[in-house]
Write a structure and sequence with these properties.
signal; Long-chain fatty acid transport protein; 61% strand; 4 helices
Length: 422
């Protein structure tokens, strides 16, 4: 048994190390052209199936929480989770429409309990991604890359019913962008390549109040302190001859290169949630998220979205409302497997904080999913399905209809029990 667990640990950290250097196509969206790209929700696959409801929960004995570190206080089993995300979208702008898809490894995490009242978690996830390609007879615009988030969280029950938590995250990644003005004898090409780094701190709290022997109310809150992400790299301009489709060869020594640096300022973000349920049977909750407008400055962020959508873009305060829950007919049923399945559903309504064509960009989504018990141990295959729409062609002259599939496998066991010798 010990050898098997050591092998699992080696496998886990091998994946973590290799994932740092893996460049995957994680998103395909024109909206990722600005700043550091499309930002992904911190909700796990199970929470995405509940409309991104993640600041509160009452079924967390084997769940590793990223959104609220206070929930780690309920972790009773050592858990390892691998998550995948499959994205499909139909994009419509004023001038064109197209379909796109992307698949990526979205999260790897390991959670370890600290006795009956606490837990810690480490992990690596995709925080944001850049992925777009626009082409016409006279113009080519391309971007790829993203930002990874390595995190460490801890949660502990400090008083009966009250848990507190903290999480520190390190952001890093690389992005490359290219703009080419073609259709003439000599094309002009702009290349932008930059690396990013930054650190954030999140604080979380959860309070449980028993209304009856079976029914429990939950209150949760998190706050991410204001932080900056810096981008440093190079900006390169040169004249070129187009030798193939979107392939450009530099002419002579025409290149002009300079170092560039920029900053993304991320203001304080708060999330509040409330819920009601019966442990391991059913739960329903509501959460509200709010954040002031993001701001960008410096060379790496001078390339605006207007080149891709032909519409000006700016930022405003963002907010999101999530409503969701789950039901498990009978978690410990021995005969009927489907009674042990967790059935989840939710809705979300979000003001993304983007202003396109002088109108706010909204995100409306509905989701559902399943938690499927696997094997004899406490392991689950979790699935989430999400349908939604970002933007509105009548207001933003831009619209994405998307379909997301989330898949994660969670393996949980008691790895660190004390040995008893009779």
């Amino acid at each position: 048994m010990k050898q098997n667990k050591n092998s699992v640990l080696i496998f886990i950290f091998s994946i973590l190390i290799s994932s740092v250097y893996a460049q995957e196509k994680q998103v395909s969206s024109l909206l990722s052209n600005y700043g550091l790209g499309t930002v992904f929700s911190e909700a796990t696959v199970t929470e995405k199936a509940q409309g991104d409801l993640s600041v509160i929960n009452n079924n967390t004995e084997e769940v590793i929480s990223i959104a609220n570190p206070a929930l780690l206080s309920h972790l009773q089993l050592t858990s390892f989770t691998v998550s995948l995300n499959v994205l499909g979208s139909n994009v419509e702008t004023q001038n064109s429409s197209y379909s796109a898809s992307a698949i990526s490894l979205s999260n790897l995490s390991l959670g370890i309990p600290l006795g009956p009242k606490g837990g810690v978690a480490i992990g690596l996830r995709a925080n944001s991604a850049v992925g777009f390609e626009v082409e016409s007879d006279n113009f080519y615009d391309y971007g790829n890359g993203g930002v990874n988030q390595a995190y460490f969280g801890i949660g502990y029950e400090v008083l009966k019913g009250l848990s507190l938590g903290a999480q520190i995250s390190q952001y890093f990644g690389k992005t490359e962008k290219r703009q080419a003005f073609k259709g003439v004898q000599q094309s002009t090409v702009y290349d932008h390549n930059f690396n990013v780094s930054g650190t954030s701190v999140k604080l979380g709290a959860e309070y449980s109040y028993r209304l009856s022997e079976r029914i429990e109310a939950k209150f949760g809150a998190t706050g991410v302190l204001a932080y900056n992400v810096t981008a440093t790299g190079t900006s390169r301009f040169f004249e070129a001859i187009q030798t193939d489709e979107n392939i450009f060869s530099e002419i002579g020594d025409s290149a002009q290169e300079k170092n560039t640096e920029g900053t993304k300022k991320t203001p304080f973000k708060s999330v509040l949630g409330i819920g009601l349920g019966e442990r391991n049977h059913w739960f329903a909750g509501l959460s509200y998220e709010n954040q002031d407008a993001l701001s960008y400055s410096g060379g790496p962020f001078n390339q605006t979205l207007s080149t891709a959508t032909d519409r000006p873009l700016s930022f405003e305060a963002s907010n999101k409302i999530s409503l969701g829950g789950y039901i498990i007919p009978k978690k410990y049923a021995l005969k009927n497997y489907f009674n042990r399945v967790a059935y989840r559903a939710g809705l979300k309504y979000e003001n993304t904080g983007l202003v396109l064509n002088n109108s706010s960009v909204k995100n409306l989504g509905m989701s559902f999913g399943f938690g499927l018990p696997v094997g004899k141990r406490v392991s689950y295959l979790n699935l989430s399905f999400e349908l939604g729409r970002i933007g509105d062609t009548s207001k933003n002259n831009y619209q994405e209809e998307y379909f997301n599939v989330g898949i994660d496998f969670s393996l949980s066991d008691k790895w660190f029990n004390k040995r008893v010798i009779d």
